[in-house]
Amino acid sequence: MMNRFALDDPRFPAAFLAIASAGILAAALFFQFVLGYQPCVLCLWQRVPYGAVIAFSIATLLFRQWKGLGDALLVASGFALLAGAGIAAYHVGVEQHWWAGTSACGSTGHAPQTLEELRAQVLAAPVTRCDDIAWSLFGVSMAGYNVLISLALSAFAFLAARSAYIRTTATRTFA
Q1: Which residues are registered as beta bridge partners of 39?
Q2: Residues whose CB falls within 8 Å of the CB of residue 100, separated by 6 or more in sequence, listed in order
Q3: Whole-angstrom distance between the N-terminal and C-terminal Cα of the chain?
Q4: What span, in angstroms and rounded, lies between the C-alpha atoms of 2 and 93?
Q5: Is the sign of the CA dihedral 81, 86, 87, 93 positive or negative?
Q6: Phi, psi of 136, rounded to the nearest 5 degrees
Q7: Residue 117: which pLDDT band, with cuts at 50, 70 and 90?
Q8: Per residue in 36-53, pLDDT tens?
Q9: Which residues have CB under 8 Å from 64's CB, separation 6+?
Q10: CB 91, CB 28: distance < 8 Å
Q11: How many other β-carbons are positioned within 10 Å of the β-carbon of residue 79?
Q12: Cβ neighbours around 169 below 10 Å, total
């Protein structure tokens, strides 16, 4: 069981979030470049929050002497991961055909009227459609797993920030 006091110092949660985010990005790149699964636009958007969390975590580790900055960056990481879960949930909805994707998702708009319009539409079309499920395990797509992972990491970030806040207020009260 993880020591509760490990959450009192924002460096441990920041390092954990950075390693987890880097691992998730590495897995996405492995699927893309080694296994050949091309990402759609929403897949690429889902990577951005993990990059932000890595940046927030590095800042927490580098500027640990600034009191409160690490705690604030844990909260920012929690919100970034929550946004990532939202993007992933939207992507799941597109994959399940609950709603249409963005115009960048390869949705078919109006039919081209001229050869030039057709050429422009073909050149502008993304390689991978957002509503195609490229990979799934137990009926859950990568976007579905990303929802779960993002929510779990977001909860961890908020829990760590809350623990740090309680530590700070207890220190002020009893000091």
Answers
A1: none
A2: 94, 107
A3: 30
A4: 35
A5: positive
A6: -150, 155
A7: confident
A8: 888 999 999 999 999 999
A9: 10, 11, 70
A10: no
A11: 16
A12: 10
What is the residue whose two structure tokens read 């990402």? 39
The β-bridge partners of 141 are 136
Q: How many CA atoms lie within 13 A of 80 on its CB side?
A: 22
Asked whether residue 81 carries a pLDDT value surpassing 50, the answer given is yes
pLDDT score recorded for residue 150: 97
Show the tokens assigned to 153: 């990491």
Domains and CATH numbers, the chain: 7-174 (1.20.1550.10)
CA-CA-CA-CA dihedral for 92, 96, 100, 101, to nearest 10: 40
Q: From CA 170, how far away is CA 60, in angstroms rounded?
A: 22
